[in-house]
Amino acid sequence: MHVQLSETAQRVNTVFCIGRNYAAHAAELGNAVESEPVVFLKPNAALLHEGSPIVLPDYSQEVHYECELVLLIGKDADHVDEAAALSCIAGYGLGLDLTARDVQSEVKAKGLPWTKAKGFRGAACVSDFVAANLVADPARLQFSLRINGELRQHGDTALMQFPVATIVSYLSRIYGLRAGDLVFTGTPEGVGRLQGGDRLQLELPGLLQAAWQVAP
C-alpha cells in the first residue's frame, strides 16, 4: 500500500495509532488519561484512500468516526530525542480511525485486544500528505471533520496530551520507526456513529482537504 506526498507515491510500512491523546475525548468515552502514550496498530489492509467508499463491517452495528492528524515518517529513527523528532517527519495528513465501538466494548470487557474493532478493511482512511516544511508548527494545527455539511469534530493539536514531537520520540525508543510508517495521533472529542450514505469532509485549513462517503 502507498500514500501520496507531493504527488510522489510513498510505500507504507507500519501503521501506528495513539489512543486517548485528547483529554476531552477520553472523558466522553469514560476513559482515564494515561501517563504515557496508548499505542495500537492497524494492518496495512485497513488503509483506505480518498475516493474509495467506506464499507462498514457487517459484524458491527455501531462504527464510530475519529478524525486525526496523521504523520508520515520520512526516515528510519531509533532512540530519537524530542528536539530531533520533527526532523523525522516527511509529511502531515488527515485520517479517520474508524472504530467498531460495540465490538471494542465487548473485547475490552473480556481483556482482549482491540484488533477486530480497529483493524477491519477500510478502518484507516488516509488523505494525501503535505510536505513537512509547509507546516510551521505541528503543535499549533487545527483540523476539522464535517459530516453531511455539519461540523462534528474540531481538533487543536495544542490540546494533545502528548505532542507530535513526544509521540515520535516515544515510538522511536520503544518500537523504532521506519521510513514510510504512518502515525495516527489521536482524536478530539465529538466522535459518533456513521450511517450509510454519510459524506465526510476533513480539512487542515490552508493545507489540505479530503472526503469519503459511507456506502449505502
From TrEMBL:
Do you know which Pfam families this protein is assigned to? Answer: FAA_hydrolase
Q: Which Gene3D superfamilies match?
A: Fumarylacetoacetase-like, C-terminal domain
Which residue intervals define the domain Fumarylacetoacetase-like C-terminal in the entry? 14-212
Q: Does the keyword Transcription regulation apply?
A: no
**Record keywords, A-Z:** Metal-binding
- InterPro entries linked to this entry: Fumarylacetoacetase-like_C, Fumarylacetoacetase_C_sf
Citing just one GO molecular function, the answer is:
acetylpyruvate hydrolase activity
Name the chain's protein.
2-keto-4-pentenoate hydratase/2-oxohepta-3-ene-1,7-dioic acid hydratase in catechol pathway
Q: Which organism is it from?
A: Vogesella indigofera
